[in-house]
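INFO  loader      accepted 1 record
INFO  loader      residues=172
INFO  predictor   begin
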Amino acid sequence: MTGVIRPDTKTCRLLDLGCGPGLLLDHLRDKAAPAPIRYLGIDLSEKMIAAARQRHPDESFEARDLLADPLKERCVDYVVMNGVLTEKRELPQAEMVAFAKEIIAAAFHAAEIGIAFNVMSTQVDWTRDDLFHWSCDEVLGFAARDLTRHAVIRADYGLYEYTTYLYRSPQR
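INFO  predictor   done
INFO  writer      dumping tokens
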């Protein structure tokens, strides 16, 4: 997920959307962040935000529904949504696609540079009804029509999912 952050970034404002208990911060500290980070974690769950604040008392966390209460445009540099779009539980596929498009658009609205999100791949030999399998073609089509044509797909890390990076401008 943090591969979305370009290595030439100085200090970056990073939004961890769907942050849960703030585990991304542990990863950033253990693996050395690609750039100095000003972190903000947002989650729907008050319990997750309480756990995140207890785990990382010096960081910023908010309980917030980004669709009901959007962030200001381009208020952060990057948005990471890890695991937010991998499960759909009993939600019908069409409703999950509509939700995914809405939350991705809200995240992109908040990002100055780019966003990263993962979904389950359709290029697998099995699927599960409770997981959100969404084809790369559909994701790229949506992104190009509604957000940006500057996209990267990463499926090289050994899981049955892929990560999409969407950027406002071309990356080199």
